[in-house]
């Protein structure tokens, strides 16, 4: 199959509502200015207001991004958002999510930056609150919405790879964790704030695993962080292998770093280099390579857009479409995201409970 022939199958344009609602942002941190606001501008969505506990910061973000109103009081932002019929875009520390959504008007639309709380208990509280208040809610697991992931899913759904039997995510990089000072206070770090993306992506392709095997650990040069490396096996039975391996402490040369997501089937395979993770924050290029059982060998497909910021258009567009049509299948629904949190919780449980001891007796 040629790339030209693939064009009839692959369409990575993000979903968009017919009549977009305005957006109000709760939180104006780096993820908002680096990803949310650029993505919404690209999609043509209007951001009408923003709030931050640091009012001066909110005011500066509003000025920089042409946002009409900024607020340093949450109740005022919420009242403004309700008047505007806006979507609430919540990007705050995970431990603060539950307290914020309790204050939102009933039947509002809300998109919540991942993770869905710091633990399964907090995730359950968030889910219950959304149900009680009849919120149309989603969690911003945006890697599944990256153009290269969308393309891979469309190729798989078209049957081009046959039966999927092997999925692998590998990260070997030097991550500058000092850019996110709040992470140094977390008891759960690497899986909850990074590998959670990959767990969610594997679920996007394979569905829900029946079990997990996991070990998450420190790095001797980063002992002040709870964990920075993880090895995760997601159990899908005796045929399908799904592995996630992350090492955020490889500081021996940028050109030896790796970040790829690989999917193998009975008729072909896809290997995606995720460039944003490499030599972060400078980043590198994305690469989408595939091979099919047609004798043409490995080929490269040019995919427009990346994880940051393009993938952030998808969850917001999907949520807005869900607000327009309650029957629309919203891929980032809070119910689906809760299942990702269940897998994360199982990973921590597996890591804490230890491995099977090896019996060296005779």
Can I get a quick summary?
It contains ten helices and 14 strands. It is an alpha/beta fold and 362 residues long. Strands 8-9-10-7-11-12-13-14 form an eight-stranded mixed beta sheet.
Give structural notes:
The chain is an alpha/beta fold and 362 residues long. The chain has two domains: 23-140, Rossmann fold (3-Layer(aba) Sandwich); 144-312, 2-Layer Sandwich (Dihydrodipicolinate Reductase, domain 2), CATH 3.30.360. Helices cover 33% and strands 22% of the residues. The chain is built from ten helices and 14 strands. It has an eight-stranded mixed sheet with strand order 8-9-10-7-11-12-13-14. Helix 6 (120-132) packs antiparallel against helix 10 (334-353) and helix 8 (190-206) crosses helix 10 (334-353).
Count of individual helical segments: 10
Report the CATH C-level class of the largest domain.
Alpha Beta
The CATH homologous superfamily of the largest domain corresponds to: Dihydrodipicolinate Reductase, domain 2
Instruction: Give the percentage of residues in beta strands.
Output: 15-25%
């Amino acid at each position: 199959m040629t790339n030209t022939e693939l064009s009839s199958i692959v369409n990575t344009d993000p979903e968009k509502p017919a009549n977009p609602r305005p957006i109000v942002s709760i939180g104006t941190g780096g993820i908002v200015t680096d990803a949310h606001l650029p993505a919404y501008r690209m999609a043509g969505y209007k951001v009408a207001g923003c709030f931050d506990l640091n009012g001066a910061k909110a005011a500066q973000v509003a000025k920089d991004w042409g946002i009409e109103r900024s607020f340093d009081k949450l109740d005022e932002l919420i009242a403004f958002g309700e008047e505007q019929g806006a979507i609430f875009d919540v990007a705050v520390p995970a431990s603060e999510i539950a307290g914020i959504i309790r204050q939102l008007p009933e039947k509002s639309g809300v998109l919540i930056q991942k993770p869905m709380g710091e633990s399964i208990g907090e995730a359950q509280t968030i889910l219950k609150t959304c149900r009680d208040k009849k919120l149309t809610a989603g969690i911003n697991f945006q890697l599944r919405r990256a153009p290269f992931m969308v393309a891979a899913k469309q190729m798989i759904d078209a049957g081009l790879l046959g039966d999927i039997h092997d999925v692998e995510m590998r990260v070997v990089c030097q991550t500058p964790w000092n850019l996110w000072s709040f992470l140094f206070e977390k008891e759960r770090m690497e899986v909850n704030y990074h590998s959670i993306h990959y767990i969610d992506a594997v679920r996007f392709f394979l569905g829900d695993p029946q079990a997990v095997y996991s070990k998450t650990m420190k790095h001797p040069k980063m002992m002040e962080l709870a964990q920075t490396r993880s090895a995760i096996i997601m159990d899908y039975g005796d045929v399908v292998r799904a592995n996630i391996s992350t090492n955020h402490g490889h500081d021996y040369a940028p050109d030896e770093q790796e970040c790829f997501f690989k999917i193998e089937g009975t008729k072909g395979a896809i290997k995606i280099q995720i460039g944003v993770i490499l030599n972060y924050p400078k980043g590198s290029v994305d690469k989408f390579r595939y091979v099919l059982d047609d004798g043409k060998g490995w080929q490269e497909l040019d995919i427009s857009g990346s994880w940051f910021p393009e993938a952030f258009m998808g969850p917001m567009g999907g949520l807005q479409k869900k607000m327009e049509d309650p029957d629309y299948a919203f891929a980032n629904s809070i119910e689906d995201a809760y299942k990702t949190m269940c897998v994360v919780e199982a990973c921590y449980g597996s890591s804490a409970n230890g491995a099977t001891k090896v019996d060296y007796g005779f």
